[in-house]
C-alpha cells in the first residue's frame, strides 16, 4: 500500500515545480545606467541602458578573457552541463551552441517520493538523488535507493538497496553514494521509503550509465614485419578495438595486438636499369645502381575499450613504423614472366636471350660452264640482332620485394659471318650426303675437285656468326662441262594460281644427239625424269634442236613452292639444267567474317573482323558509296580506325536563370546540356592477295559515341568564375557578384526640444540598393570538348537588409543606442533646472493682502545633447555619418502651487497657482502666524521651497 499524501500538498508540489521552471523574478529593461553596478546582477550597462546578459552576442574569448565556459562561450554559466533541471529535476542542462538550456520539461511523477537524476557519475560509482514530497501521515522510518544493472524496476526483492543515514523529518532532498559499480554499464535506480507502518513506497525509475575509461599506457613496438601493441587493462572492459590511422584493425579481448599488415619498409635506388642493345654477342647485359632499404610509413595507433553498455573514447595515440629491410639481392623479370634471383651483384648477363639471324644472299653454282672446275659464290648475305627482350628488376630482402623498376628493352648482338661450302658425294640432293669441302671457307670458291667426267653434284653453303643462328642455303646442282647434251632452264614466267610457263634453251644436242627434252617440277628439290610420285614432267613433244622454246606447266597447286629442272635425254644419259624455284599464286581469299563497327568511342569508329586464310591484306569500303577508305597491306592487321566521321554533338545548356532576390549570392540554374552520337557509317571489308580481291563481307554500321558530360563552366561577362563543376550540377551560387553599394546616411535626423521629460530621436529609414546587374552564361564540358555558351541571363544581388541603426553621441563618448527603430527613440538628456533659491511673503499693512514671490533666476532648459546616426546592413557595411541633430529637455512649461499653513506645517491650504501671487488674510485674527511654501513643477521634475511666514499684528 502506498502511503497517502494530502491533495493540497500534491497541488503545491506541482505549482512549485512550475514556478521553478518558468521563474517569477520581474525583469526590467531600458533602465538608465552609467556603470554595470547600476543594473541587476544578470544585466550589464550598454550605451547608458541596462540590458540582459543573455541578449548580448557571445563573441568568443579575447585578451581579457581567461577561459571559455563549458559551452565554448564567455558568459558565466549558473549551472554545468549535466546538472539536473526541469520542474522536478528529471531533465539535464545541455549546450545548444554557446547557450546552456534544459533538455526538457518532464512533469513531476505523481508519487510521494521522486527519483531525480544521479550526479557525480564516474566509472565505479555515482551520487543517487531523490526528493521527498511529503512525510507520510503514519511517519517515516527509512529513505534510500535501490539499483540494478539487470532489473528495469529495482526493488528490495531484486536489486541492491541502500538507506540514507539520517531519515528526513520534513519534505526535502536526500542522496546517497552507490559504490562498486561496473564501468560503462547501464543501471536503473528508484528511490524508496518505508513508513511508520512498514509499508514500502517506490519513486519513479531513472537510468544512467557509468563512465567508460579509455585504455592507458598504449605502447607500439615494431619488429621486422610486425608492430606489436600493448596496453593496460581497463577495468570492466569486455574487449578492445585497435585503430590504425583511424581505421579499425579488429577487436580483441587480450591486452596485446600484432599488426602484421602495417606498411612495410621497401627498397629504392636501383631504378636506373639499362640493357645492352646489339653490343654483346654472348647475350644481353643488364646493369643498375645498388639499392638500399627504406623504412615503412609511420602510422598512428589508438585503442578503444568496449563495456557492457558503452564504448570509451580512443586512447592517446602512439606512432610507430617498421624498420628498413636489409637488401640481400635482386630479381630480374624477362618479358613479364617469372622473377629470377640473380644474386647481390649489380650486373646480369642474359645468356638465353634470342639469337640474331642470318639472311642468305644469292647463291650461284656453275653447271657445265667450266671444264676444270665448278664455280661457287654467295653474295648479299646480311645479319640482324636478336629479338628485343623486356626487363624489369627489383630488390629483395627480409622476405619482401621492393617496387619494380621501369621496363626497358635490349637485344643480343651478332658478330662477323663465316662460310663453309659443302658438296654431296652422289648425284642427289640428300641431307645426310653433304660433306664439308676442304678450304672452302670464303664467300667465293672454285671446286677443282668436282668429278671431271661432268657428273652432277649438289652444293650448299653454311653461314655462321657469333650470337646468331646458323643458316644453310638450299642445295644447287653443279658440274663440269662435258660432251653430253646440255639444256638450260632460262626462267619460269607467268606464274599463276594453277599454271606457269617454263622458258627452255637447248645449247648442245650432245653425241649421240638428244631425242627428248622437257621440264619436270616437284614440291621437293631435284625433280627427275621420268615422273614418279609427286613429280610432274612436261615434254616438249617434238624432236629437240638447239634453240629456245616455252612449255606450259599446268595442274599446279595454289600457293605452293615448286622446284623445276629442264631435262634432255640421249641414248647415253639424261642431263639436267640447274634447278629453279618458283611459287604459285595463292587462291583468291574468301570474304571476311565477324565484321563489327563500334559505337562507344568519342573520337573514332573501330572496325574489326576475323582473319582470312590466304589474305595478304584487306580493303575497307564505305558500303553506301563504295568509296575505298583503307588499303591494309599487312595480313596480320584485322582492324581499322575511322576518324573521318562526324563527332557526337554537345549542345549548350538551356533555360539559364539568374536570381535577383538573394542578397548574398546570385543563384544560377539551368537545364543540363544534351548529347547525341555522330552520324552512322556502314562498312564492308574485302580480303585480297596477289591473285585478287574477295567478294564483299557483310556490312556493319558504326558511329562515334555521344560525348559524356563531365562538368560545366560558368562565366560572368567574359570572366570565368567557376570551372569543372560536377556533371550532375545544374546550379551555382555566385557569391562574388558585383556587390551592393554601402547604405546611404540616414536623412532628416531630428531631436525634440519641446518636452521637459525627454528628448526623442527620429529620422527617415534608409532604403538599401541592389548590386549592379551582371550577365551570365554557362558552357557544358565533355572532356576537352566545350559546348557553345548558353543564352545569357542577367542577375544581381538583392539589396542587403538594414540590420540596425547605431546612434552615437556627437561628443565622442560612443554609442547611445542601437536598433531598428526610426522614431520615438529615447535619448538620455539632462533635465531642466528650476534655479529658484527662496520665497518671500510680504504683508501689505492695512490691506490684509500678502504678496508672495520667488527669489532667484528663472528655470532653464536642460543641457543640449547632439547625436548622429549610422545605418549598418546585413553585411556589416556602414553608411556615412548622418548630419548631427541637437535637442534638449525644455523648461517652458512651469507650474506653481502656493500653500499656506496656520498650524506649523501640519496642514496646508492651496492659495495660488501663479509665479508671483497674493494671499488674502483680511479676515485673519491678530496674533496669528502663517507659513508659506511653493511647489514648482517642470514635467516630472518637482521642487518645494519653504521658509516664508507672516504674523498678523
Write structural notes for this entry.
This protein has 953 residues and is mostly beta strands. Strand 1 (43-46) and strand 2 form a beta hairpin. The two termini are 93 Å apart. It is elongated and about 210 Å long. The chain contains one helix and 79 strands. Among the domains are: 7-209, Immunoglobulin-like (Sandwich), CATH 2.60.40.10; 483-571, Sandwich (Immunoglobulin-like), CATH 2.60.40.10; 596-711, Immunoglobulin-like (Sandwich); 712-819, no CATH class; 830-873 and 881-951, Immunoglobulin-like (Sandwich), CATH 2.60.40.10.
Q: Quaternary status of these chains?
A: single chain
Low-confidence stretches: 1-29, 58-66
Question: What's the CATH H-level superfamily name of the domain at 7-209?
Answer: Immunoglobulins
Distance between the termini: 93 Å
Helix content: under 10%
Average of the residue pLDDT scores: 89
Structural class: mainly beta
Q: Give the helix tally.
A: 1
Shape field: elongated
Q: Which topology of the domain at 7-209 does CATH recognise?
A: Immunoglobulin-like
SS strand fraction: 35-45%
- List how many beta strands DSSP finds: 79
- Just give the CATH class of the domain at 7-209: Mainly Beta
The major beta sheet can be summarized as: 5 strands, antiparallel
Keywords: Signal
Protein name: Fibronectin type-III domain-containing protein
Domain Fibronectin type-III: 212-577, 589-694, 743-944
Signal peptide: 1-19
